[in-house]
Amino acid sequence: MNEHVTELAAWAVSEAISRGRVHAEPRPKTRGEFQRDRDRIVHSTAFRRLEYKTQVFVNHEGDLFRTRLTHSIEVAQIARSIARALSLNDDQTEAIALAHDLGHTPFGHAGQDALNECMAAHGGFEHNLQSLRIVDRLEERYGAFDGLNLMFETRAGILKHCAPATARELGELGNRFLEDRRPSLEAQICNLADEIAYNNHDVDDGLRSGLITLEQLEQISLFARHARQALLEFPTLVGRRLIHETVRRVIDAQVTDLLTETQQRIAANGIKTLADVERAPPLVGFSAAMQAENRELKTFLRTELYRHYQVVRMTNKARRVIRDLFAAFLAEPRLLPPQYQASGEQEGMPRVIADYIAGMTDRYAIKEHRRLFDVGYLEP
Ligand code: MG
Question: Which domain holds residue 172?
């Protein structure tokens, strides 16, 4: 395989067939348009906030656990490798992967669910839509426009799912949901790379935290098989090295399986163009056997890690922080920083409160909660 694939597949996302940016800009001189997208995402404020947002474990619980930032970098690494191996647009894939979690609230899924409940009567809250809202509107970095003014295809890749009513509001970007078209292969790759990354790093973080054990994981076929392989090669291996030698084999097996299956589906569906990709069934995927093993691992993680009582205690507290903050701001918008009060008058206070809360890091949300509710806490 080439070290660097320069020739893109005919069905890859490319500048030549791009629908471009909402606000016309001169072409970059030294890099491609999708590299520019990636660079804008890396320099954004929302990207830096990911460093202090929960993946599974709240940011202050340990320095070695994944955060949304390291998770996004791992997703980008896996997605980029897959894209390059399939002669797809790896720059664009990387841009989507790095942006895919920008809209996440503090405290992971518990935070998103709580904010969605708070917003039930005001249009709801969905982190995926929020990622798009950040790159389209909320980032304040350019004189000529709000947001990052990303390429159409990058924005489309960020928008993974979307209800019909929202799709209609989004115009051209929402059309694929109304016309039942699939996203580009680059976007499909990011979706699966996300899954590969979190299943594997949650195993690693779960073991590190002591909430799950190696003995439990030996019941899970995907993990057990690759642990046996690692021990065949290194019979005396124990502890962290055994975990890492196992996890790297699982990631490799999943990526290899996905590449083989995806290549077969591309051939079987006679894909010749990007339009063919959009009309075909999902093309990026695992074999049936790998899918079954993945499901077993996911079920294990859900019951043993995500629903572990110590995790539930944390997420329960997190939900309360989000609910308290939302209720306090809605009852008294003058508690909000002045720029949010001003936007609230234009956009409706609930949406602006959701933007403010969603933008918080874990520790900022905790501190804000203390400022508002702890009468003994004297910092304004
Ligand atoms: Mg993710």
Answer: 15-311
